Structures are given as C-alpha cells and as structure tokens.
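Handout, page 2. Input:
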Amino acid sequence: MTEQDLSPGRIGRPPKVDADGIPTRDRLLRAAVDACVECGYEGATLADIARRAEVSTPAVYGHFSGKAALLVEASKRELDAISNTRLPGEAGIREIARLWLRPGFARTRVLVAELHCAAIRQPEVAELLADWQHENATRLARLAGLSPAQVNMYYLLLLGLSHTDQVSGLGVDEEELGRQVDAIIDGWFAASAQQADC
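Output:
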C-alpha cells in the first residue's frame, strides 16, 4: 500500500470537471480574467463569467461569494504563478519585475490595474485587496526579507508597471524598460542597505 492509499479520501462530491478535465473553480477563475480584461471590472458580470466557464450563474456562488471575491482570487492566482518560485531576495524581485514586463503577462497587468482602479470606488474590492496584500506581505517578509515599507514599494512598482501598455507612445522597448527597472531595484536595495547600516 502506498501513502496515498492510506490517506483519507475527499469528503463530499468530487469537483465537477469539463470535457478536458478542468474543474469548475479553475474554469471560473480563467473566465473571470478573460471577462475583466475584455470588459473591465465594472463591465464584467457574473452571468458573463458563468457563461464563459460553461456553468450557471448560481453555480458561481458555490465557489465564490461574488464578483469581487472571484476577481481578487483570479488576480492572486495569476500573481502567485510568477512569484511562488522566484523569491527570495533582490534577484527574485528583479526577476518578477522583468517577467511582469513581458508580453505574455499583458492580461495579468490589465487585471491588476482594473482591480486597483475598482478598489477606489468599490469598498469590497479594496477590503479584499488589503487582506491579500497583508497576507502576502507576511510571506514576502519571510521569504525575501522585505520590510513592510519595502513590500509597499514592491507593490507600487508592480502596479506602476501594470500600466506599461498604456505608456507606449515613447517607443521604449521592453529590454530598455527592464534595464531602468533594474536600476530602480538596485538603488532601492542599496538605499535600504545603507539605512540598515546607520
């Protein structure tokens, strides 16, 4: 017998999956990103997200408390995909910022920008983002050795970089922008080290 054979089975119904074996929750998270990127936070509706995920609108509530919770969870998942294996330290922060600039992360940048703009007008979104930021700050402090102020700066850096596609009129390519981001991170960590020495 293997260890897996001895472990208790999942209690309750197994997760529903589509023809490709993708669970409903995963389909909802993907559909939420698609809807938010295409329609914006305000334009994304639970009915549209459910349709894209090929479930009924009430089925969304079996997994999430509402649109805000669904979209914040989708954002967390997208961000975790690039940060979970790339910490700790300055090199990890630099690598995450560089990845953030790549064309393949354009959807994630739009999602993050949309959620933070929605947080200005939607208290529920602001509260969910604040909870996640606090939870993630603890992880960043542990894994990357960042202080709360440094975590705040890291968030601001990524949030600013989320608007890269909207600042396209200057003709700066990704590689040059990446070098500028590296310089900011170098200066940021050098200044932090000097402050720690004082």
